[in-house]
Amino acid sequence: MKQRKSRHEQQNQEESFVKTYLKPVGIGLGVGVAVLFVLLLIFSLIISAKDFPSGLILPLSLFCLSVGALAAGFVSAKLAGEHGLFYGFCCGLILSILILICTMITGQSYLSVTGIYKFLCAIIFASLGGIFGVNQRRRRK
């Protein structure tokens, strides 16, 4: 006969889930969004100060997104210490969903070729960041 788990055991499992999965992904996303914000701020200041062609805006924004996603995947996998591809993919997926929400709020169309590029960049670079984060050597003290 299957025994029911006590409240204490259920609470420990919930805390374990949060510590194992949600904490690394949340911290990684925070770092990734901060990196993305800082890079976009720097490039927007450069673009507004100088005369840039409008054709450079999309590549610069994709570059910023790629670096932010790489940072998010790297930090989350580094904190988790294992399953870098999984943590990176989760960060890239959530980052893509955040970008989708932001573009829907501003009234732009995300379901275009540009939106697909953004989605793929976020997923691929966050997954690569996760792989790099897990495979980086630990520092010796």
UniProtKB/TrEMBL annotation:
Report the transmembrane regions from the record: 21-49, 55-77, 84-110, 116-134
InterPro entries, A to Z: DUF3792_TM
Q: Which UniProt keywords apply?
A: Membrane, Transmembrane, Transmembrane helix
Put simply, this protein is called TIGR04086 family membrane protein
What is the protein's species of origin? Zongyangia hominis
Q: What is the lineage of its organism?
A: Bacteria, Bacillati, Bacillota, Clostridia, Eubacteriales
